[in-house]
Amino acid sequence: MLKKRGVAILGSTGSIGTQALEVIEAYPELFDLQVITAGNNADLLIEQARKFNPNMVVIVDETQYTKVKEALWNEDIHVYCGKESLCQVVQSTEVDVVLTALVGYAGLQPTIAAIEAKKDIALANKETLVVAGALITALARKHGINIYPVDSEHSAIFQCLPGEQINPIEKIYLTASGGPFRGFTEEQLKKVTKAQALKHPNWSMGAKITIDSASMMNKGLEVIEAKWLFNLKAEQIDIIVHPQSIVHSLVQFEDGSMKAQLGLPDMKLPIQYALTYPQRLKTDYPRFNFMDYPQLTFEKADAKTFKNLELAYKAMELGGNIACALNAANEVTVQAFLEERISFLDIALINESVMEKTTLIDSLSLEDYMATDREAREQAKALIQ
Ligand code: NAD
Ligand code: MG
Predict the structure, then answer these.
(1) From the CA of 152, which ligand is nearest?
(2) Which of 166, 170, 208, 325 is deepest in the core (most CB within 10 A)?
């Protein structure tokens, strides 16, 4: 029987955050929700706080503090604002596990604060490992905490590993749906719009990861995420396009045997596995039916047309701060694409220029990562003007 766990959800108003709250609502005997936080969606944060009665809430956008504070004055809930507060609330003694469901580089410092306070991490925020995987994994080892993957592909790999402690991984295959532009040529990609890019065939997710999926940057970020989570080399990580998103990823062992994890696409499964590992919870979610999927298909990823894939492998090969620069450039270019200030193909072109302009630093402190992030953002912005 599982012990009740104190949970903090960073980014509770997002796609992962709201699904995590559904999981918590379904198993009140397992979870004690201590903390929820939002970037700027004050209305939803207030609604969630009233419903779940956490001990603390954080609204990062300081201009909305009074609104949240006043709405919750009658409840027994501590209300904080500003990004520094994220680093404070994760340290609460009542918190056992921190689900990092906020988006982008903003996840880095709260994750560090949580690890230093010896909290386990349920990691959705892949950007943190992309930016500073060496630092984060070293800190996790130092403080003896676990990082449980929430990303569906990484959860799949993680689910294939119990019982294999003595068996090295030969390689892994991360599956990719291919996104809305699978099979497109460069010529076709020139004309795609924001609305088309925001329509993912299989998953409903936040705007940033949806654009990353369309540009294949998401899979690139996931390759780097996998390197750090499973301690692999670039050549041990392969991508295979699987448009049905049923096989969530695969592990190959040294005898050539492969294990895969399958299921209907539903992020609630990896979220709850990360929160209750190694136990699986009984659910009544729809079950996979073979007759609905007479064919599961697999094809090669097109890293030439979807250049972001190539960039991610390059960043991994170069190491140091290069993936941090790529991530920063990508956050800026995705935002610019969402604001319709650059074209779809510009995303990868600008990401590449920023990577090329970045001076490699090998052994990094947090300050070095912060400086690389800042400089890469400035370079990307200058290229967009
Ligand atoms: P989302 O945009 O739906 O939600 C993001 C959450 O973070 C919101 O609560 C928002 O208020 C908060 N937030 C945004 N910017 C912030 C900032 N600067 N500081 C503090 N809080 C901020 O995003 P999402 O789709 O839920 O994705 C969250 C993370 O999970 C991302 O790193 C993404 O790559 C990863 N992920 C998501 C999915 C998915 O199905 N949505 C799957 C795998 C991994
Ligand atoms: Mg994924």
Answers:
(1) 2
(2) 325
